[in-house]
Design goal:
single chain; 206 residues; alpha+beta; 32% helix; DUF5947; DUF5947 family protein
């Protein structure tokens, strides 16, 4: 993840970044494209359409690459009350949780001026959250995340959305409190996310 965040931070600062190429075959890429997650390094790779199709199922690539999904779901029915939040033991107000297929355990990360900070998840609280919110059981290991913000709510998102948020916080944070630029960017991030989401209004998987 460290390498990925470094790349995202570089792209945020350098708007004159040259045209990108598929990192598997070298095909030129449009500005908007999808990513593959290279599992051993936990880094994203930019992918062309042909390589996306090649790795568009879990068994492809011998488990080395996973195509990052595109779905974004607003979890309107997920409760983030004080008890739930305290149970996750998250020290900040924004966090994302990924199911790590390597360990079989959930792992939480949160943005900071230094990048993503990793922390363990209280398993009792996580299992209760899964039981009460069946939509979370659809999370694809490694490539999708529960993104939760104490003030704004919760979403299922592609993991590259989370990495982009972390990269933006890292590059825009100023001083001790972050400054107005990073706060405006975070607000815009969640507004744009809602615009791209399909809602899950109850606690079912439909």
């Amino acid at each position: 993840m460290t390498g990925l965040l470094r790349r995202l931070a570089t792209r945020s600062r350098d708007q004159s970044h040259p045209a990108q190429e598929c990192e598997l075959c070298g095909e030129p890429l449009p500005a908007t494209h999808r990513h593959l997650l290279e599992l051993p390094k936990r880094e994203l790779r930019c992918a062309c359409r042909a390589c996306q199709v090649l790795f568009d199922h879990a068994a492809a690539g011998g488990g080395h690459y996973r195509l990052v999904p595109e779905r974004r779901r607003r979890l309107s029915g997920l409760s983030l009350d004080e008890e739930t939040w305290a149970g996750l033991r998250t020290p900040v107000r924004t966090v994302f949780v990924i199911h790590d297929s390597g360990t079989g355990l959930p792992v939480q990360y949160y943005p900071s001026p230094a990048g993503a900070v990793q922390a363990s998840v209280d398993l009792t609280a996580w299992e209760r959250l899964l039981r009460d919110n069946p939509a979370l059981q659809e999370l694809e290991p490694d490539v999708e995340a529960l993104l939760a913000d104490r003030d704004r709510g919760a979403w299922i998102v592609p993991v590259d959305d989370c990495y982009a948020l972390v990269g933006a916080v890292r590059t825009r944070w100023r001083g001790l409190t972050g400054g107005p630029d990073v706060r405006q960017h975070i607000t815009r991030f969640f507004t744009d996310l809602d615009d791209r989401c399909s809602p899950v209004t109850d606690r079912s998987t439909t």
